[in-house]
Amino acid sequence: MHDFFSINRNALIIRPTRAMIDWANAVFPEDPIDYDEMGQHDEQDVFLLPDFGTAEETEEWLKENCEDFLTYVLEDWCMDKSAWPSPLDWALFRRFFDFAIETSVADTMDEDYDEEAFEEEIEEEFKEFDEEEGFGDFDFEDN
Question: What is the pTM of this model?
């Protein structure tokens, strides 16, 4: 059996509401999204948050930082900030997202998982660099 371990973080799970999809469809009418056909899993974002004692404390922090979350998500949907609704405030956050705050977060991977994945990614990037660019005619001794 796999060992899970609790991490010292809370999680925020957000899912676009019909109001957000209506906004996206107004911005990009040539490629409309059918809200009723959206998947229940792939359309959610999960953010790790600081560890607070209660969901209420986390929500208070979220209210103070909602503009950052709106900016992050809106940039993913539309790079043209002039098309964004305004103001980026708590009322818009609540209008655009269904959200849940989870105060118990467990990691299913051992502590080496992220480190190993990072090392593999770096190794692959350097391998591609060597193959494409190469260091063949560079004299390390003279530089």
Answer: 0.74
**What is the number of other CB atoms lying within 10 angstroms of the CB of residue 131?**
8
- Measured CA to CA in angstroms, residue 12 lies from 8, 84, 126 at distances of 14, 22, 35
DSSP per-residue letters across 79-95:
S-GGGS-S--SHHHHHH
Residue at 10: amino acid letter: N
Contact predicate 101/48, CB 8 Å: no
What are the tens digits of pLDDT across the range 45-85?
A: 999 999 988 888 999 999 999 999 999 999 999 999 999 99
Please give the Cα distance from 21 to 43 (Å, whole number).
11
